[in-house]
Amino acid sequence: MIINNDHIQDSNRNKLEEHSESFDFLANKLSKKGHNISNIVSKLSEFQVAIPSWALGAGGTRFGRFSFYGEPSNLEQKIEDVGILHSLTQTAGAVSLHIPWDIPSDYKAIKEKADALHIKFDAVNSNTFQDQTDAKESYKYGSLSNISSAVREQAIQHNLDVINIGNKLGSKCLTVWLADGSCFPGQNNFQTAFQNTQDSLKDIYKGLPNDWSMLIEYKPYEPNFYSTVIQDWGASLMLANGCGDKAYTLVDLGHHLPNSNIEQIVAILQLKGKLGGFHFNDSKYGDDDLTVGSIKPYALFLIFNELVYGMQNNPQNPDLAWMIDASHNVKDPLEDLIQSLEAIQEAYAKALLIDQEALKAAQANNDVVKCQEILQGAYRTDVRPLLEKARLNTGGAISPIDSYRRLDVRGQLIKERGKNTIATGL
Ligand code: LRH
Ligand code: MN
Ligand code: MN
């Protein structure tokens, strides 16, 4: 173990006094306004976000990739990295695997490693956007939507294999993201492609264990630049409804055209009991996969406002599978993920501060100014001492980034794994 609890507590020492002062000040202020601080802090501790196995190495672009050294090059090392993130932040208690990048060679050993680090196996992701070595059929012109039934069957079988692998690890959820679509008008018949996708998803759904769910992710463009078969939440919801009760829509923040009202999408899906999963990231232009909260933190807060409302008022909607789906070109991936986890907790904490009763009353009176005051009052509160407290209570770091650097985690990883490591994944 590169870092243990004692190391983290040591690294906290010089921050304890400042933390206590700022926490007491904030807790006092918020308590006077009627907030239940210990309730908020325990909600923050309970909120766990899965780390995707493919975000632990430097992602790069089609123009180049710049390594960070010491990156994980196998599944065990990826789980170790998630373990590091979890011990520092106490928020990353799950990993999301991508098959075939992460097929375990020894299931028992992998499960024991994850257990020891308190890491659960969240959704498993299938991959029908790349041709696999030795595969008979090619996904060049699509997978579940392909005009060829042999290609569709191969893609269906792959998803069934992924369910089987996930089952052995204790996962309960399959995420399907398709690259299927077309690059030029006329290339595809929209109706045939959609119908093929529905039929293929139904075949996968038949193989889903009873206690599993299937999450259908949408995205407007890329890698196809004219049309995508599952391009938006409407297409995803239709497909999920076509499959059945265990199929849901998955919202990835980066998979919308600029200025889409994502909070409204989230609200309506929860009302219909069909929001199953969530991928966090941030973007300026498209699917940039940047650090959560680095570009549009207020939009993230508004989305969390709806998520909190849904969690409190929509029993028809299941617990969500939360995951970070980011990529790192110029930052140390672990530092970037720590920043993302912090941004998620911050938005969540701020949303928990919204006075829902007062907001309802202001809405009933059409007091638009008051509605805005309530939202922005919560947003402008510096909630970071609450996050620190949540981490401290469970043995984490007051400042995870500071501890990560103080404990020279990257330096230790490089010493252990060497410089020439290649992360598998995107
Ligand atoms: C593509 C994508 C998607 C993930 C998948 C692994 O956009 O990032 O969001 O779920 O690749
Ligand atoms: Mn995603
Ligand atoms: Mn994406």
Automatic annotation (TrEMBL):
Top-level taxonomic group: Bacteria
Classification via InterPro entries: L-rhamnose_isomerase (IPR050337), Xyl_isomerase-like_sf (IPR036237)
Signal peptide (residue range): none
Keyword Isomerase assigned: yes
GO terms of molecular function: isomerase activity; metal ion binding
Keywords: Isomerase, Manganese, Metal-binding
Name this polypeptide is given: Sugar isomerase
Source organism of this protein record: Winogradskyella flava
